[in-house]
C-alpha cells in the first residue's frame, strides 16, 4: 500500500507505533536515533541478558520493520544528513517542539521550501499550539489530563492508569490514520500537509465520551470496576473461575434479559440456584432497580449462585458453553492466552520473525488487518542501532515518490 514511500521517524519512543504501522503497510521507515540509541533500547531486556541494549522487548514492539540510522543532531554533519533524508522523504514523524525541530534544521520555512509534498506528522502532549504547547508531560499526567484516570480503578480507591503506558499509543494510532488521510489527499493534489496530533485529545476517545458529561449536563460518571450500579446498589459482573475470571455482559435490560435466563437455567441444571430465579423478569431488572421497585439486595442471591457456579468452571469451558448456549459472557485473558488463541492462530495473528541477536525466530503480532489484494508483510525484524547508517549516510539525494505529478481526480478522469 505504501511501497516506494519513505518515512523519516523522529518520534523516538513516544510515537514509535505510528512509524511501525506505516512500515507494516509497506513504507520504508527510517528511525533516526541519537548515537546512544533511543531510551527504549535499554528498557526491559530479557531476564539475565547482559546485552539488553539490543534485546529490549519495548523497543522491538515499536520498531519492527524499521531501518536505523544514528545521527548526532547537535553537530552540523548530522543535521545535514537529516535534512537530505527529509528532503527525499514522503512522510516525517516527530514528537518534538517546533523550536527543537528548527534547531535541527527542520524549521517550517525550510520544510516548505525543500519538501512541499511532505506529510509532516507531529505527536505532542497537548498539540503544537495553545497555552499548554510547551508543557512537559508523562503518561500518567496525560491520562489524568484527558479524564481517563477518573474512570480507571476500583470505586473505593484512588484513580489509576493502566500498568502499561497507553497515552502515546493512542496518539500514535490517530497519527497513523491522519498520515494516511493526508497521503490520500496528496495523491490528488500533489501537496503535503501537517498533521498535528495532541495526545490529550486522542485519549479523550478512551473515556467513552464521558468527557461530554459536563457540557451536555449529564450525570457525572462514577469510577467503578467489576460491575454496575443500579438504584444505589452495586451489581457484580465479574466472577472467579477455576483458572481466572469471567465477565458478564449487562443481562438486565429489555434487549438482554434472555441471556440471564439461559445462564441461570444452565447453573440450575448443575445444581446451583433456585428455579424460580430463572423466571424473573430480567429484561426489566435494571429499570425496576433504578425506579426503586426492588430492594437493594435483590441481586444478592443470584450473585451467590453465580459465584458458586463459575468457581466450578474453567474459562475455556465457559467460552465453549457461551457459544453453544448463547450466553453473554467473556473470559478475562492474559497476554499469553491471547497469543495462544486458536482463533487468532487460524488468522495468522502471531508471526515468527527471524531476529539475528537471538539466533532464532521471535513471535510478533501479525498484520493489524487482512487485505486480500495486498497482504501486509511483517517479516522484517527490529533494527540494530545504526544498522543501516553507513548506507544511508552515503546515499545520493533521493526524490520523494510523492513528488511525481498527482493523479487526476475521479471526476476529471471520466471521459
Mean pLDDT: 90
Report the portion of residues in β strands: 15-25%
> Which structural class do the helices and strands define?
alpha/beta
Q: Which value, in Å, is the CA radius of gyration? A: 26 Å
Task: Describe the SSE topology.
Layout: E1 6-10, H1 16-24, E2 28-33, H2 57-63, E3 67-70, H3 76-87, E4 91-94, H4 98-103, H5 108-114, E5 119-124, H6 139-145, H7 167-189, E6 193-198, H8 199-204, E7 227-230, E8 233-236, E9 238-241, E10 244-248, H9 257-269, H10 275-278, H11 285-290, H12 300-310, H13 315-325, E11 329-332, H14 335-339, H15 342-346, E12 350-355, E13 360-365, H16 389-394, H17 410-413
Helix pairs in contact: 1-7
What would you say this structure looks like, in words?
The structure is a single chain. With 415 residues, the protein is an alpha/beta fold. The protein has helices at residues 16-24, 57-63, 76-87, 98-103, 108-114, 139-145, 167-189, 199-204, 257-269, 275-278, 285-290, 300-310, 315-325, 335-339, 342-346, 389-394, 410-413; strands spanning 6-10, 28-33, 67-70, 91-94, 119-124, 193-198, 227-230, 233-236, 238-241, 244-248, 329-332, 350-355, 360-365. The strands form 4 sheets. A 6-stranded parallel beta sheet has the order 3-2-1-4-5-6, with helices on both faces. It has a 3-stranded antiparallel beta sheet with strand order 9-10-11. A two-stranded antiparallel ribbon has the order 7-8. Helix 1 (16-24) crosses helix 7. The radius of gyration is 26 Å and the shape is elongated. Residues 408-415 have low confidence and may be disordered.
Amino acid at each position: 500500500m505504501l511501497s516506494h514511500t519513505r518515512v523519516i521517524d523522529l518520534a523516538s519512543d513516544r510515537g514509535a507505533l505510528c512509524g511501525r504501522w506505516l512500515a507494516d503497510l509497506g513504507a520504508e521507515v527510517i528511525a533516526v536515533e541519537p548515537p546512544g540509541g533511543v531510551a527504549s533500547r535499554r528498557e526491559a531486556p530479557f531476564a539475565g541478558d547482559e546485552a539488553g541494549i539490543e534485546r529490549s522487548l519495548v523497543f522491538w514492539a515499536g520498531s519492527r520493520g524499521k531501518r536505523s540510522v544514528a545521527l548526532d543532531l547537535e553537530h552540523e554533519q548530522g543535521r545535514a544528513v537529516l535534512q537530505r533524508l527529509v528532503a527525499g522523504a514522503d512522510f516525517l514523524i516527530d514528537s518534538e517542539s517546533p523550536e527543537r525541530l528548527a534547531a535541527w534544521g527542520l524549521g517550517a520555512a525550510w520544510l516548505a521550501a525543500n519538501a512541499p509534498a511532505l506529510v509532516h506528522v507531529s505527536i505532542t502532549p497537548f498539540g503544537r499550539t495553545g497555552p499548554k504547547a510547551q508543557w512537559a508531560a508523562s503518561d500518567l499526567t496525560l491520562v489524568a489530563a484527558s479524564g481517563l484516570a477518573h474512570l480507571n480503578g476500583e470505586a473505593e480507591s484512588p484513580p489509576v492508569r493502566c500498568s502499561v503506558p497507553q497515552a502515546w499509543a493512542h496518539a500514535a494510532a490517530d497519527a497513523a490514520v491522519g498520515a494516511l488521510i493526508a497521503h490520500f489527499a496528496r495523491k490528488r493534489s500533489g501537496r503535503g500537509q501537517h498533521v498535528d496530533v495532541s495526545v490529550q485529545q486522542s485519549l479523550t476517545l478512551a473515556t467513552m465520551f464521558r468527557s461530554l458529561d459536563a457540557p451536555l449536563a449529564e450525570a457525572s460518571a462514577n469510577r467503578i470496576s467489576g460491575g454496575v450500579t443500579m438504584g444505589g446498589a452495586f451489581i457484580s459482573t465479574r466472577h472467579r473461575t477455576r483458572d481466572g475470571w469471567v465477565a458478564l455482559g449487562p443481562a438486565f435490560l429489555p434487549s438482554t434479559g434472555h441471556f440471564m435466563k439461559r445462564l441461570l437455567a444452565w447453573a440450575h441444571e448443575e445444581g446451583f440456584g433456585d428455579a424460580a430465579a430463572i423466571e424473573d423478569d430480567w429484561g426489566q431488572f435494571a429499570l425496576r432497580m433504578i425506579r426503586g421497585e426492588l430492594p437493594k439486595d435483590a441481586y444478592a442471591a443470584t450473585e451467590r449462585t453465580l459465584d458458586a457456579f463459575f468457581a466450578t468452571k474453567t474459562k475455556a469451558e465457559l467460552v465453549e458453553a457461551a457459544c453453544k448456549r448463547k450466553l453473554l459472557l467473556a473470559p478475562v485473558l492474559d497476554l499469553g492466552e491471547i497469543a495462544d488463541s486458536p482463533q487468532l492462530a487460524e488468522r495468522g495473528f502471531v508471526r515468527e520473525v527471524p531476529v539475528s541477536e537471538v539466533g532464532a525466530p521471535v513471535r510478533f503480532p501479525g498484520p493489524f488487518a487482512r487485505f486480500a489484494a495486498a497482504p501486509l508483510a511483517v517479516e522484517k525484524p527490529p533494527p540494530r542501532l545504526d544498522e543501516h547508517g553507513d548506507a544511508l549516510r552515503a546515499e545520493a539525494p533521493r526524490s520523494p515518490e510523492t513528488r511525481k505529478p498527482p493523479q487526476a481526480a475521479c471526476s476529471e478522469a471520466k471521459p
